[in-house]
Amino acid sequence: MNAPETTEIQTSSLSDQLAAMRQALAGSATTRRIIWASAAILVVIVATSFGQILLNRWNQPFYDAIQRRDGAEFLRQLMVFAAIAGGLLLLNIAQQWLNQRTKLRLREVLTVDLIDEWMRPNRAFRLTHAGAIGVNPDQRMQQDADHLSDLTTGLAIGFVQALILLVSFVGVLWTLSSGFVFHYGGHAIAIPGYMVWAAFLYAGLAALISWLVGRPLIELNSAHYTSEAELRHSMVRVNEHIDAIALAQGEAEEKKRLNLDLGGVLAAVMRIYAAQINLAWVTDTYGWITVVAPILVAAPVYFAGDISFGGLMMAVGAFNQVHSSLRWFINNIGSIADWRATLMRVADFRLALKEADRLHGQEQR
Question: Could you tell me which residue, 116 or 357, shows the higher pLDDT?
Fold first, then answer.
């Protein structure tokens, strides 16, 4: 019988890709360990958030002591700071260890699942006739699965941490800014939760601009991984057939082909660099403004004499915590685009293994 005709398998939707990853996790005994590690991480994050609240409360007596030039209270508050910072240090180290364990277990689940699906009878053979998705399966199972595990763990834990900090400090910031009164033209204007609304508006505008500028990175990262795979495949092929190439004196031709593949990689990387520079204009500008933004927001109330210097620093600290939680998306826009591209490569490969059975299951080897 003739060789089966190559059939291109189309890229799936995000919902299909996420469903494929859920199936991979559901079929593994290691998933239970990931769940327990995730629960431990959640406990550590909640404890860290409580420590951050204590640290924020410490701002007021510390800076008030500086304002009063009270040396004894200043030294006492330094001891309080040492206790809080020491506890937060232990929690941060524990979280880092749990993060690494979770990432390792997740990679184990994904890689074992992909190998199991790939090594089912005749599947690897059928995949070679599935078009571009069947090229370089080794990279998708080894490099892409590792990268996806790393990004998924980092982004998921970071998001949960930002969410818990946001919930913890929104109430604190609302209480602190509930008494803020602005004096203008002889009138007193009170805005309940003024600094909360300012933080949401400020971070929301920056998130929207960052997403619009950084969204092209999804396709650019996917194209980069594909070009890297093609270059690696060409190098492996040359190494495997080096005897035949030498006998045929085909080094010049192979060199030309390798240089073409390398050119594709460099062009893909340059496009990513250009997109990252565009994104950096937004995120870096936003970062510098953030240095003074909370002080500018609270300054009118401070100069009106409605809060002390310690109260100002406490409000600024709470604003920074809320704002840092809200800007999680802005800080990770590049990683989110990279995660989306890597998820597409790994999930589409897993789906293609099953789809190859349907397209070529009736053909003989």
Answer: 116
